[in-house]
Amino acid sequence: MATTLHEKIKAHVIRGIHDGTWLPGQRLPSEHQLVSELGVSRMTVNKALRELAGAGRIVRIAGVGSFVAEAKPQSTLLQIATIANEIRARGHEHSWHCLSRERIAAPPDVAVWLDMIPGQSIFHMASVHFENGVPIQLEDRYVNPKMVPDFLDQDFSHSTPGEILLATVPADLVEHVVDAVMPTPEQARILDMQASEPCLQLTRRTWSRDVPVTWVRCLNPASRYSLGSRFRPGPDH
Q1: Is 126's pLDDT higher than 60?
Q2: Domain range summary for the chain, segments of one domain joined by +
Q3: Which residues in 143-179 are b (16+ Cβ under 10 Å) and which e?
Q4: How confident is the model at residue 112 (pLDDT cuts 50, 70, 90)?
Q5: Mapping DSSP to helix (H, G, I), strand (E, B) and coil, where does residue 219 land?
Q6: What integer pLDDT is reported at residue 84 of this predicted model?
Q7: Domain 5-68 has CATH 1.10.10.10
Q8: How far, in Å, are 29, 51, 69, 114, 129 from residue 161 at the CA level?
């Protein structure tokens, strides 16, 4: 459940969006109104709204106010490519190991990304992927039980979580965000790398019929992995 004040404010706004108090495109109460209504500081309200804007849930316009974002997020040109298929396409051997597989209460940040309320039940799975026996990707995945209620009951002995999700609930909308980050000591240990070596982090969200299906963060040692895409432009490009 939300614990800090700004997380409670975020949960308050998300609940209002879910129950129809504020509809897509509708203006939210001002920071001053939220301060008065919730009894918190303006700095705390501002932090909560900034994080909601960063997650794409609201749109903030300087001097005007904050508005509920339109329900359908923007797609990208990137296509989904599972790490297993990428490795096999290179003629190499793919293997993977599950680190954790559980049903948990959705953390506030993950709930925002999957259009859920903090504390709602969510599936979580962490795993590490290997290429020819060398760890190449640490995968931290959250799955919406509404869309894949039997996800944790699947047989993962022959297919990865990503492959099963694509086969079960084909995505019709995909969002990719790529960042350069430094691993934590624990992440570096799992990936058998130096903690001083940078990583490429790919964060992916997928939707099916406008409902979020999964949010996954993939961490890759920069020295072992690169990101790119090839596509054929349409007539408008």
Answers
A1: yes
A2: 5-68, 83-221
A3: bbbebbeebbeeebeeebbbebbbeebebebebbeee
A4: confident
A5: strand
A6: 84
A7: yes
A8: 40, 29, 30, 17, 11
